[in-house]
Amino acid sequence: MQQASANRVERLVQQFKELYGVAPELMVRAPGRVNLIGEHTDYNEGYVFPAAIERDILIAASVRPDKQVRLFSLDMGLSATFTLDAIEKASIEEERWSNYPRAMAWALQNKGFSLRGVQAVLQGDIPPGAGLSSSAALLVACGLLLLAAAHQTLDLVELALLAQQAEREFVGVNVGIMDQFISALGQKDHALFIDTRTLHYEAVPLPTSGVFLVIANTNKPRGLVDSAYNQRRAECEEALDCLRRFLPSIRALRDVTLEEFTRWEARLPEVPRKRARHVITENERVLQSVDALKRGDIALFGSLMNASHRSLRDDYEVSCTELDALVEAAWALPGVYGSRMTGAGFGGCTVSLVAEEALERFCKEVPERYQETTGREASILITRAAQGAERIL
């Protein structure tokens, strides 16, 4: 229970007792995540390298004798109720947040699980809208809770896949597998190398002494993300179609080697060429990063993070003034091994690998330089890689 502090758990138990008049029988947690490297590779069947973070969703619950699911969100001060006998999307605005628990119950029942009603209180400390996967954490936590209440278990890979299905088919957001996967299967002090085509994964140790992950939030609304995401997917498909003329056996951009791309890139239109170059070189950077960390070469890993940001900025064109300002402020400081934007882009967060002795200066100077450049205030979150979803009561 390293991430969910004893105080948070105690407060949640107390709130549950005040709301329902009994003590909770169950408590689960599921963390948010940060992707260290491997951006916009997942929908090209490539490699990603995320870590769970020390921020999570906590849910306390007790089992009901009927099929009702009663929920209360401490963060929003809102309640919602639905029945497992007929799960429908929330019809009123104040209950829209409950579409994620509803989605998970819907997916589990479609899978054949016989669920029981619960009454639950939810609380999270993952910054919303920051691209740190609070929605995936909520889905995974709800899945774990509903299974525990029904005395059922499910392989964590299957739980992640069900959470993805729930968000795609019930909530209606066409997400990849990375967020749910790392929330369910994250390991303390490790990043998770994931092949998004095969779902093969490997836990890779991160430095546990003298180095921290630092997430800096631009606090910029990300209004362009959906349209740009769809556009980038289309541009990758165009690049793939062009490359298939010369490499007919390829299924996705992940199948193109750097040597093959270099040979044929001049035959692609400029924009698809740039998008393909990012995806192909980013996959290579992920593989090099995994190897670097296994050998303890933090400096090389940091330089690969820097190269990833430049590629996302110049070839994939999903960075923005705010992300670049945070990254460049981090690059200017001694003790920062590497820094890059993380997530879909056009706002959200950066992730930096920072030596312990440089943390104080980073937390002071990066926000100062960011505000001078953009007029906005940045939020800083210091973390280590955290454990994935678990039952803690």
Overview of the molecule:
This protein folds into two domains: 6-205, Ribosomal Protein S5, domain 2, CATH 3.30.230; 211-383, Alpha-Beta Plaits (2-Layer Sandwich). It has helices at 6-20, 99-110, 134-149, 156-171, 178-185, 225-244, 258-264, 270-294, 298-314, 321-331, 359-374; strands at 26-37, 47-63, 68-73, 78-83, 118-124, 190-195, 201-205, 211-217, 336-342, 349-355, 379-383, 390-391. β9 (336-342) and β10 form a beta hairpin. Strands 1, 2, 3, 4, 5, 6, 7 and 12 form an eight-stranded mixed sheet that branches. A four-stranded antiparallel sheet has the order 9-10-8-11. By secondary structure, it is an alpha+beta fold. The chain is globular and about 65 Å long.
Task: Furnish the topology, listing elements before pairings.
Elements: H1 6-20, E1 26-37, E2 47-63, E3 68-73, E4 78-83, H2 99-110, E5 118-124, H3 134-149, H4 156-171, H5 178-185, E6 190-195, E7 201-205, E8 211-217, H6 225-244, H7 258-264, H8 270-294, H9 298-314, H10 321-331, E9 336-342, E10 349-355, H11 359-374, E11 379-383, E12 390-391
Parallel strand pairs: 3-5
Antiparallel strand pairs: 1-2, 1-12, 2-5, 2-6, 3-4, 6-7, 8-10, 8-11, 9-10
Helix pairs in contact: 2-3, 2-4, 3-4, 3-5, 4-5, 6-8, 8-9, 10-11
Main β sheet profile: 8 strands, mixed
**DSSP summary: helix tally:** 11
Spatial gap, N to C terminus: 10 Å
The succession of helices and strands, N to C, reads HEEEEHEHHHEEEHHHHHEEHEE
Task: Provide the gyration radius in Å.
Answer: 21 Å
The low-pLDDT segments are none
- Overall geometry comes to globular
Provide the CATH topology of the largest domain: Ribosomal Protein S5, domain 2
CATH C-level label of the largest domain: Alpha Beta
The helix fraction, in percent, is 40-55%
CATH level-two architecture of the largest domain: 2-Layer Sandwich
Mean pLDDT over all positions: 96
Number of domains: 2
Number of strands: 12
Which structural class best describes the helix and strand composition? alpha+beta
β content, as a range?
Answer: 15-25%
